[in-house]
């Protein structure tokens, strides 16, 4: 069993949650079109749909809320927020947005034109959607090991430099930027090494191409660097975070992850000209450039959360809780993505439901089964999340198809995690009782996993024989 340190906090306030009957969950899931995303939260016992905006804030963050300066322009809270980002991420120009996808929208509108090509270390649904809506084609240049659930490579978020070099050679001036993530969500929360990130930036910069980093979980990435990358064991998490950002030209951030806040984000840039352009678009789409869709109290909570996020005791306990769930599932024979990621454990749906065709959406089917069994909400990461190819209209079938169990920070106890593990073990043990997968009955054009509806391919229930 991996080390599971005692939590470096104690509980001061609780939010009641309730268990439900199987009959109740069956009714709720049918009403939600077999999509756990459309469930009411009151019908969910353990909610692992996302770690985004679902973490528990500290007493100091709640205190910071009361200090919020709600002036429309030039609020004191903005300058506190700006200084926290500059100190811990190292970028000069800090532009607030309401959350990460607001930053993706602004950056895409600034730089992408029809016919553009954007290389990256595996796609993320909202990031690629903004790129494609603005006329770009995404190119996956992540290492091959990232597409193999069983591979134990310590940095499956690394860029394959030969792949990146080939995309640059083919598309050259049509590449507005390289889009990298630390960690890589769709690979299961896998980190990128400092050495590889630096090499990828050097390659791009040699061709005049900027690199922008998704830093939503860069603190978790820094933890893995400290544990796994030679030469970094004696460095602080704060120093490694700065080292990850240092070779890049800017970042898009959802402060709802590492920063322990319930809303908010930023664009951080080095180029003053691009920063001025981005501020102009923020005025149109987000709010004034000194609040960007956030209240002053939100910026205060984020500034406090940034400092807490790099605390060694906090990040050690956070990663250990995720590793604990992964170890329990792995030792019980439940196939998961290896190594265990920073924010989630990903159950390999194509291995669990290997008797279902990909056309019956095994990831979505497994998500439904786990909710029915134990009231646990996860999210599919596979065919549904990948969407359709805009050129052909055909479903994309990525190599990885999994159920992501994303663990909110400072929210659930070890007993809750044990319930999750016990539920997954039961579902896996009885997996052949799942005789049918799911098919679409309603399919939105963008980010369809949020609002799509489904029906069992073989009748009224996925368990019908």
Automatic annotation (TrEMBL):
Keywords: Antibiotic biosynthesis, Lyase, Pyridoxal phosphate. Its cofactor is pyridoxal 5'-phosphate. It holds the Pfam family Beta_elim_lyase. GO terms for molecular function: tyrosine phenol-lyase activity. It is an enzyme of class 4 (lyase). The modification N6-(pyridoxal phosphate)lysine is found at residue 257. Its EC number is 4.1.99.2. It comes from the Bacteria. The keyword Lyase applies. InterPro entries: ArAA_b-elim_lyase/Thr_aldolase, Beta-eliminating_lyase, PyrdxlP-dep_Trfase, PyrdxlP-dep_Trfase_major, PyrdxlP-dep_Trfase_small. One of its GO terms (biological process) is antibiotic biosynthetic process. Residues 47-422 form the Aromatic amino acid beta-eliminating lyase/threonine aldolase domain. Belongs to the beta-eliminating lyase family. This is Tyrosine phenol-lyase. It comes from Amycolatopsis japonica.
């Amino acid at each position: 069993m991996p080390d599971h340190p005692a939590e470096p906090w104690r509980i001061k306030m609780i939010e009641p949650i309730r268990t439900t009957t199987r009959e109740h969950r069956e009714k709720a899931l049918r009403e939600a079109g077999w999509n756990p995303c459309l469930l009411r939260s009151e019908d969910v016992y353990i909610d692992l749909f996302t770690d985004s905006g679902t973490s528990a804030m500290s007493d100091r963050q709640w205190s910071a809320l009361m200090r919020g300066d709600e002036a429309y322009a030039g609020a004191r809270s903005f300058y506190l927020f700006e200084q926290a980002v500059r100190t811990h991420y190292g970028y000069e120009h800090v532009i607030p947005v309401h959350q990460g996808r607001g930053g993706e929208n602004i950056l895409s509108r600034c730089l992408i034109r029809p016919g553009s090509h954007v290389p990256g270390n595996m796609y993320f649904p909202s990031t690629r959607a903004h790129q494609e809506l603005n006329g770009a084609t995404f190119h996956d240049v992540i290492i091959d090991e990232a597409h193999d659930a069983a591979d134990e490579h310590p940095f499956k978020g690394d860029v394959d430099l030969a792949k990146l070099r080939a995309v640059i050679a083919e598309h050259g001036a049509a590449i507005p930027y390289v889009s990298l993530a630390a960690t890589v969500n769709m690979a299961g929360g896998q980190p990128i090494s400092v050495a590889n990130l630096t090499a990828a930036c050097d390659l791009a910069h040699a061709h005049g191409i900027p690199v922008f980093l998704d830093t939503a979980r860069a603190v978790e990435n820094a933890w893995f660097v400290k544990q796994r990358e030679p030469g970094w064991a004696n460095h602080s998490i704060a120093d490694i975070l700065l080292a990850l950002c240092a070779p890049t030209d800017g970042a898009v951030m959802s402060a709802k992850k590492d920063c322990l806040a319930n809303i908010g984000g930023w664009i951080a840039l080095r180029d003053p000209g691009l920063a001025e352009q981005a501020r102009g678009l923020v005025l149109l789409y987000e709010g004034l450039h000194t609040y960007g869709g956030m209240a002053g109290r939100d910026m205060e909570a984020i500034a406090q959360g940034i400092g807490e996020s790099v605390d060694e005791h906090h990040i050690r306990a956070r990663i250990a809780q995720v590793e604990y769930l992964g170890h329990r599932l792995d030792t019980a024979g439940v196939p998961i993505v290896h190594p265990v990621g920073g924010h989630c454990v990903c159950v390999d749906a194509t291995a669990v439901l290997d008797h279902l065709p990909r056309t019956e959406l095994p990831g979505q089917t497994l998500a439904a089964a786990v909710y029915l069994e134990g009231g646990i909400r996860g999210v599919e990461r596979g065919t549904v999340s990948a969407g359709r190819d805009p050129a052909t209209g055909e479903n994309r079938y990525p190599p990885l198809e999994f159920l992501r169990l994303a663990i909110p920070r400072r929210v659930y106890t070890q007993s809750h995690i044990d319930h999750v593990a016990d539920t997954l073990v039961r579902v896996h043990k009885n997996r052949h009782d799942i005789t049918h997968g799911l098919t679409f009955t309603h399919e939105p054009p963008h980010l369809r996993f949020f609002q799509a509806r489904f029906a069992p391919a073989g009748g009224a229930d996925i368990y019908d024989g």
